[in-house]
Amino acid sequence: MDIRQLRAFVVLAEQGNYRLAAERLCITQPALSKQIQALEALLGARLFNRGRQGAQLTASGQRLYPEAQALVGQHLQFQQRALRIVQGEAGRLAIGFGLSSFHLAPQLVAAFRQRFPEVAVGLEDLPSERQYQLLLQGELQVGFVRLPVSKPLRASALLSDRLVLAAPAALALKAEAIIGQFNTLPLLQLTPKRGRGLSEQSLRFIAAHQLVPNVVQQAGDIQTLLALVAAGIGVALLPHSVSHIIPAGIDILPLSGEQTEWQVGIAWNPQQADALRDNFIQVALAAASVR
């Protein structure tokens, strides 16, 4: 059964006149008659009584009309929805983010959703290394990651992040004295599995300044790590970008010198064509540029 036959049936039922129905469908009257005849032959029943008054629905036609009308409406809705999907205006987008984009990524998603409210966005907290893998596998469309990325991935820088020392306020540490006291401070860390980029950045900072860290405990997530610092158990090297979630009782002390800064950007896999992803990247880069 052809959707054109159902549409012809619905329009003729609504118009009750072959000439008016043909005009609305932008076809000739003979073409309309052929579509109706073909539908009647397929169903084995007359759908219209033809006379001087035009075309009137038979009993079978009256019963079929509401269902045909619903199907034609659903077909139109599908066409409109499909067009929005292929143009990147609807659908689902999987996005990854990490510690350094903890605050930025949700803001850019919100800006995108204002432009494209029909898009469902999944936002998952993942280490950059895991995001690289999922982007290559097609399970993520966009990632907020530590730069640089390796080919075939492509990226655009969004911000610079830097190391800071999160310390219990009770210690009353001074920024200018951190390097001198660092080896004596109990150091808390994220597990390398959860924050490999941060872990490697911290190790490079420690090596560059010839420090000997006194690691006393590791945590599997940033909230637990911050809770341990707030409780006075130790200090932690963290990205400055997480400062907005720092609880009371913690001082954030800047660090200077080598290996304290890195770039964070938005990454994607250009080998996979995706209009929805491209729309997100365009909106995100524009929104980030005016922050």
Automatic annotation (TrEMBL):
PANTHER family: HTH-TYPE TRANSCRIPTIONAL REGULATOR CYNR (PTHR30346:SF28), TRANSCRIPTIONAL DUAL REGULATOR HCAR-RELATED (PTHR30346). PROSITE patterns: HTH_LYSR. It holds the Pfam family HTH_1. SUPFAM superfamilies: Periplasmic binding protein-like II, Winged helix' DNA-binding domain. It comes from Serratia quinivorans. Keywords: DNA-binding, Transcription, Transcription regulation. It comes from the Bacteria. The keyword Transcription applies. CDD domains: PBP2_LTTR_aromatics_like. Belongs to the LysR transcriptional regulatory family. This is LysR family transcriptional regulator. Residues 1-58 form the HTH lysR-type domain.
